[in-house]
From TrEMBL, chain B:
Family affiliation: Belongs to the glycosyltransferase 28 family.
Identification of the protein by name: UDP:flavonoid glycosyltransferase YjiC (YdhE family)
Keyword Metal-binding on entry: no
Domain Erythromycin biosynthesis protein CIII-like N-terminal: 22-229
Pfam family, one: EryCIII-like_N
Residue ranges of domain Erythromycin biosynthesis protein CIII-like C-terminal in the record: 264-406
Amino acid sequence: MRVLFTVTRYSAHYFPLVPTAWALRAAGHEVVVACPPCEVALVGRAGLAAVPIEDGHDPMYLGRLHQYFQARQGQALLSGGVLHPVTGQPMRDLTEFDWARYKAEHRDANVARLRAGLDTTVAFARDWRPDLVVHDPLNMTGVLVGQVLGIPAWCHLWGPVGPLEERVGTQLVPRDHTDSFARHGVPPMGPELIERIIDPCPPVIGSGTALPTLPVRCVPYNGSGTVPELPPRGGRPRICVAWGNSLDLLLGPGSFLVPDILRALAPLPVEVVVVCGSAGRDRLGPLPGNVHVLSDLPLRLLLPYCEAIVYHGGAGSGMTAAWAGVPQLALPFTAEQQLTAERITRAGSGVWHVGYEVGTTGIRDAVSLLLDEPRYQHNAAALREEIAAMPSPAQVVEDLVARPRCHEGAV
Amino acid sequence: MRVLCCVSDYPTHYFPLIPLGWALQAAGHELRVCAGPAQAATIERAGLTPVPCGPDVDPVTDARWLAYSLARQGLRTGQLPPLNPETGAELADLDAFDHAEFAARRQQELARVGEARTRDVLDLAKSWRPDLVLHDLVAAEAVVAAQLSGVPSACHLWGLTGTSETTPGLDSLAADVPAPVRELIGMAADEPAIRFVLDPTPPPIAPPTAAPRMPVRYVPYNGPGALADPPPWPTEIGRARVAVVWGSAIRRINGPGSFLVPALVDALAARGVDVVLAIGAEEAELLGRLPANVQVLPQYPLRLLLPHCTAVVHHGGAGAALTAAAAGLPQLVVAFGPMELRSAQRIADAGVGVALPGAHAAPGTIRAAVDQLLDTPELAAAAAEMARANAALPSPADVVPVLEKLAETGEQMGG
């Protein structure tokens, strides 16, 4: 069987698909990943063959645009202003970006680019003749390929937010502003074209959509890396502080809470391991002896050796913590992160606070709670067991292959 | 379960077990791959987790050393004159190299590396407590780690080289544990170091193995690759497209005289076939101007290229041979080293290809070999049959339950 993966240009969105791709290859099936050219290296580092033909919008641009419109309605998340949707640079005020003018000047070129990516991927798929498509929730190319070729397209979720959410800012399914679905003679893009999902969440933390669903055990893949030499914990609890890059790109430096988190943890008898991009590391300044920074380390290699995690609300970090059975404090900023945090802590394995409201005392109290109340440890371990009992990617592949054209209700 | 894997410092020796690594990870197991520090990037790039162990070893030096030693013993027939093992320079004659001095020094160096690597692997085994140890043909430190951890071990072959070869140069490759170490770790003198073999070669070309053997379907992985420059996908009707695969280590091990790609391209172009060259950028630069029907695809994943080809020409590397076997293509193997020559012979004996010892390669013999490759329908039929046999073997995913059972009970696998 040949399986085409189509992914958007943000690795955290497609990393959860990687173990499913491995499982397919290991069972003797062929897999290629249609991706934007900028993702070739990261797709390759997962051991997968990239086809750099897909060219959808940068989700960070779309996210900044959303923040910009929210700010225009007086609902900015941060008081420090929003980022320029196109350049990602901080704006002093909203007039620095003129949406109407940007649209007038760039719409045609953007539409042409998006159409070219969609058309090339459809042409490639017609030639390569995949038996099915797997795509991440923000990717509509896979949906189009599925429709045009008449093959099943599986929407592979990354965490607790599903494709049919109602809350503002949590609707992941992209819209087609390029008339491409009509050009290819298929029904218009919309949530109703998402027909089947692969869901890495156990029911207690999942989105609970009514769509035909293949549950898959979360096998965290957060990029390739080498096993780190961990600093000794000296008999004290080890706290992981994980801060992804997405908030920087969406909301700017005002969302970088790591210094506040470190101030909050300073009085506690703990060892701290900070995992953040190298840009974040430069902003931390001098650190006390019990704080260590590891750049770009895959969390799955660290979390099994930690007693708690404090993180920015990204689903990848949250799911890895759930897999490792580690109590978590989520500090979400965006609506999607908040919904993720609400659901992922539903099992009682952690707590969450809005990142831009929590403050140092709030963080310290929450971490103390996670360490002092045994029920968090207990619930996190129970959640880990629940995840471990789900069908592995290897088993899910058997279902995908046995029933590729399954259209009936829940599978 | 936790699986500790030890491999030698040569990517094509561990690429064949990468899909088994994916299978283990996709089944929820954890895997650590021990190798020299210089291999970490390549292992990461396969999606697996490396643990750098011991100093690096340059396998090219040892391949040259083997060639030189065999020549000294008069055991090297049909091969090019050996290079200086240390520098790779051409030698006027065998005595132009102080072999005794080099051998003593290299042996000491390799012993030091072996000790350091074994120490690192044992440290990992102690702290990480694996349930199972996997290793390639030569990684003896894995056997020591398994013995000391009290867990089973299995050897995953990299290709057409087995555990009980009799060819000079191959006969002492298979991992073994020296007597003093056996005494130290409580391993009986007569206990085989390699206890189980996972063999990714399809039956007609499978090498000899002394231990119980479990066949595994070969799932090609030759580096991630990218389809940045897709060739015309559908094969043009009526014209064969032949892939030429040529590893970059050939020249470094066997000298400039071993770079036969130009002669191969000439012979193929003369037959009017389209040629795709799966060779590195450095090799491509040596070629100069190419005929219009010759295309260089340095990054293209071989496994995705071969379904569009009708035959393969290569240097006898395990990756090329097995990927061609999985694709069901007849192969012309132009080989230099003892391992590649032995593989070429197995491929010819199985009737799925043509073997041409590299030292016998001249324009005339190359043309004859190419003609034989393209004009013998029996080769293509037998190769297609071998691909069907490969596809019928248990996949790496199917092997996982067998390894789970092995880890749990220590029970030998069937097959």
